[in-house]
Amino acid sequence: MSQTRKKNSSDGETKPRTSFVNKFLRGSEFMSSKAENRKESNDLETTDFHPSNAAQETATLDMAQPLASEVELGSRLEKNEPFLRKLGTTAVDRCLDLNNCRLTAADVREAVALLPLLPDLEKLDISWNDSVGGNLHLVTQQMHLVSKLKILRLGSCRLTMDDVRALGEALEVIPDLEELNLSWNSEVGGNLPLTLQKFQEGSKIQTLELVDCDLTSEDGAFVGQLLPMMQNLEVLDLSINRNIGASLNSIAQGLKSTSNLKVLKLHSCGLSQESVRLLDATFRYLCELKKLDLSCNRELGGGFEDSSAQLVTLERLEVLDLHQCSLTADDVASLTQVIPLLASLQELDLSANKRMGCSSEHLLSRLRFLPTLKSLLINSCALETETFTALAEASTYLPTLEILDLSWNKCVGGNLKLLLEALKFLASLRVLRLSSCALVTEDVALLASVIHTGHLAKLQTLDLSYNDSICDAGWAVFCQNVWFLKELTELDISLRPSASRDCGQWFRHLLCAVAKLSEITEIGMKRWILPTSQEEELEHFHQDHRRSIHFDLGEFQ
């Protein structure tokens, strides 16, 4: 980030002068090459330096000459340079991201020493650092110095009960907090009131994430009481807290006061059939909701039979995740009346609901009324030929579809031709997964012909793994045509764990194809056995092309 200040000269011209502090904040003086390479992956928000009013008296960047305070501040910052270099990260005036930096207790103390130097800090992320646990009080004691903090992430820090208590006290001095992430800290469970007791009505919190915190039913009830105070809440994630299903009545009542909520995640929360009824009564209050995740609640099955009508009021819903919910035939019949009316829906996950296989024909047929659908996951649903046929026909009306997963549906084998006709209309398809679909040689030969004609030109990921019935001739035809997928990055043709097999002559065709695919990085070939001659071919391939392509041959090679 280039940051410069300008001063007025006697002749009216302006000349740029880069201050020492700004050099530090943009990382030009102290950033290691490793940190520069990780700039994008760390997603650091680099913004212009704007000192707060309180800091201006001691750290003002005078336009005429550097002040002693700047030199002193620069000296203090320079002392922290080895610490930041060691972590391969940086600090800017508004963001300090130490996520997954393997901090030690000593590192935590050094990080705390940075806080007085960053009065305008808005984002502090020290997630995935075990040593934060038991030492959080060092951070919270300095929290008043970063009172402008808006984002605080403490996920997977092994927080102790004392940490939880200290955090609860500190939240009072950061009234502008908009995001709080305490996920994967089991001590939060049973102690949630200690942490969030300082939240007052009119709280600015927009995102609250408490994933896998071992929350109790009492914690769930407390969340329900707290929600009316968080009217700015947009994201609530309580996933993997299996005991809060018992207090969903309180949570559902509280949700009626969160009209700005856009994301609600209750994945694996011990929800029951009664939970569906409680949530259904809440949906009409959540008119801004865009993402709803109720997945992995196996006791939910049967709950949609009489309680799905209000789903249709979620006019802005873009993502609906109901995978592994033990949906029954009656659930599917009820959802058939609702899901096709969700005109904004872009992602639908119904996977791992094996009892819907024989009863989803009408639902899948009516997916044609979702013209903006981009992702459809229906793997492991025990589809039958009739339901697969209905899906294939509906797919021709889904021009924006980018992700399609039909894995572990055996009816696809021998019937792929039904889907291939639809694939000709799916110009946007990027991911196609057909793992363990009992595909036969004829299926991959037909797939090869579709690829050859250019109908899957945008495909990036193709999963054909665990289809052991395809003979060498089928793989040969496929490998001779796969190079037409110019944007392909991942290909998986692995055999199932119980099988192993010698590679045929098609392997040479595969190497020739890969040589023409400039984007490919990963090829799954687990349990395929390469004879010595083919091992040598692969070695020569790597030597000749010097590209980072990983051939995953598993334990056999």
Protein model, in words:
The protein is α/β, with parallel strands linked by helices and 557 residues long. It has a domain at 439-556: Alpha-Beta Horseshoe (Leucine-rich repeat, LRR (right-handed beta-alpha superhelix)), CATH 3.80.10. It is 32% helix and 11% strand. It is built from 21 helices and 21 strands. The strands form 3 sheets. It has a 17-stranded parallel sheet, with no helix packed on it. The chain has a two-stranded antiparallel ribbon with strand order 1-2. The radius of gyration is 28 Å and the shape is globular.
Short summary:
Residues 1-25 are annotated as: Disordered. The protein is of the alpha/beta class. The radius of gyration is 28 Å and the shape is globular.
Q: Give me the number of helical elements.
A: 21
Oligomeric state as shown = single chain
What is the β-strand count? 21
What share of the residues does DSSP label as strand, in percent?
5-15%
Uncertain segments are 1-69
Helix proportion = 25-40%
Structural class: alpha/beta
The CATH architecture of one domain comes to Alpha-Beta Horseshoe
Overall form: globular
* CATH fold title of one domain: Leucine-rich repeat, LRR (right-handed beta-alpha superhelix)
Rg is 28 Å
Give the N-terminus to C-terminus distance in angstroms: 46 Å
CATH level-four homologous superfamily name of one domain: Ribonuclease Inhibitor
CATH class of one domain: Alpha Beta
How many strands, which pairing sense, and closed or not: the largest β-sheet?
17 strands, parallel
The residue-averaged pLDDT reads 86
